[in-house]
Design brief:
Layout lengths: L5 H17 L6 H12 L3 H12 L6 H11 L5
Amino acid sequence: MGQTTVDVSSERQRMALPLISKHQIPVTPENYWVWYEYIYGENEPLKESLDRSIEKKQPVNTETTAALFRRYIQSTD
């Protein structure tokens, strides 16, 4: 995996923030991290889980994001 450039990182941020806003989720480090990882796409289990929730029109809210963070990000650190 190569180093992420400022331009690439900025583009991911520009893509993540509207999704956070769309789902009315506060921009906290953990919430942002989930959506950044979703945009980045390398955390496939997180992306698939979030895609399933969106496709099934299940609520994607603070609780959902917190659970995704614990399961797919925090548990891997």
